[in-house]
Amino acid sequence: MKIKEIVSALERFAPLPLQDGFDNAGLQVGLTEAEATGALLCLDVTEAVVDEAVMLGYNLIISHHPLIFKGYKSIIGRDYIERCVLKAIKNDIVIYSAHTNLDNAPGGVNYKIAEKIGLKNVRILDPKEEYLLKFVTFVPDAQADRVRKALFEAGCGCIGNYDSCSYNLEGEGTFRAQRGASPFCGEIGELHKESEVRIETILRLLKSCGDKALLATHPYEEPAFDFYPLKNTWTQVGSGVVGELEEPEAELDFLKRIKKTFEVGCLRHTRLSGRLIQKVALCGGAGAFLLPKAVSADADVFITGELKYHDYFNYENDILVAEMGHYESEQYTKEIFYSIIQEMFPELEVQITRVNTNPIKYL
What we know:
This protein is α/β, with parallel strands linked by helices. The protein contains 12 helices and 15 strands.
């Protein structure tokens, strides 16, 4: 299969529009028309990781953290990023990254952390707002089923655990084709009336998804359609998650289990108060911004990869806070990549890097 097919599968799981504004997820280096020889999965792209891909004969590296965040005016090997770019291009290696789009996606990074901890009833801690659109179009009766099917296949009509959702209202449309038009029905210069169906459905993320599906299947030369922004909260997508343990645990027992499960060199936390831990809120990476949400959710503990010094002061009376390290919190992201690729492309060689890219060492 071509590399672009693998990229497409990753983006169906974690669409790029889900990434936060500061991010640079997506294709980092290379051309995706090439046939894939193998995929190497990592958290960070380093020179050692690129060397590993070269040794394995793989032409695709998939990382969680983007290699390139800032703009470059020249690529001459001044730092490890530039050297990775040069080495990847020289060896025809494509580098692709799924970062905050994978953090925010259902089943993404935070769900994987929750799975490792053993949480049940996992849901988004801070759902996305104003990401949804209502898509409305008008289609002749005879073609309505075909257009609806195309819209659903393009991703329209998904509400929670339901898909193919739409509302349909029968009515009558009118139009008059002008000179130069090629009308599907009616005559040039004559007012035409057509029995039509008004199709309403929900669209997530990209207007272009609905546009393309509609224009490819609608019989009219100039189909009418509208987009309406919605204020609805998208509860399946967003930052962090919260869930419950099957049985409550003592604070120290819970922290010891986290340290062991995630192989944490030093687990930092606020003072112990003797509370039992059952409701757990978490966010991989730098998740301190979600502390107020965790407190509002009545979580017993909030776990993340990075915190600032004063974060420990602000909430110590409200919630147990634990910092496991950025790398440690997101290390199992590679397993998500592996599952996606193995399910869609079982014949492709895929390996998780043997390189530990954590830049932080513990004495």
